[in-house]
Amino acid sequence: MSFAEQLKSQLNIVDVVSQYVRLKRSGAAHRFVGLCPFHSEKTPSFSVHSGNQFYYCFGCHATGDVFKFVQEMESLTFPEVLHTLAERNGIPVPQRQRPDDPEQQEKAAIFEMQEIAAQLFQDNLRGPCGAEARSYLQSRGVSKDSAD
Ligand SMILES: [Zn+2]
């Protein structure tokens, strides 16, 4: 499990979003609503789902997971979001072993970057914003494993 996945499994999107948006439990199970922080509105159309750990705005269609939310709110890069959330929640960030050889260091950095990018793309594909892409892959007969 990557650090991003591990961190995500320890966070609840409802708690994180609540630090920015006043959320109320809605009638539906696992659903919380509040005023959207991404567009101006007077009636809440911003919805957070504690079951699938995604947010969605019925007004401006902003959507994503807990990382995307903090990324958008704080204008941070993905690695910065991981550090910020880990720090805020007292979760230790693993210190990667850095070899002395600069070539090895560069390789390690590239692998790390690929891992983070792959994670982000997979999350997008599996989330609500990936619905169209998923149905396209399905229509082409691409299996879930191959899509990953
Ligand atoms: Zn919105």
Polypeptide structure, described:
- The chain has helices at residues 3-10, 13-18, 66-74, 78-88, 102-126, 131-139, 144-147, and strands spanning 24-25, 31-34, 46-49, 54-57, 63-64.
- The protein has 148 residues and is an alpha+beta fold.
- It has a single domain (3-141), classed as DNA Primase, Chain A (Alpha-Beta Complex), CATH 3.90.580.10.
- A five-stranded antiparallel sheet has the order 1-2-3-4-5.
- Helix 3 (66-74) packs across helix 4.
- The longest helix has 25 residues, at 102-126.
- The chain is globular.
- Residues 36, 38-39, 46, 57, 59-60, 62 line the site of zinc ion.
Give the domain tally: 1
Low-confidence stretches: none
What's the average pLDDT?
90
For the biggest sheet, the summary is:
5 strands, antiparallel
- Relative strand content: 5-15%
Strand order of the largest sheet: 1-2-3-4-5
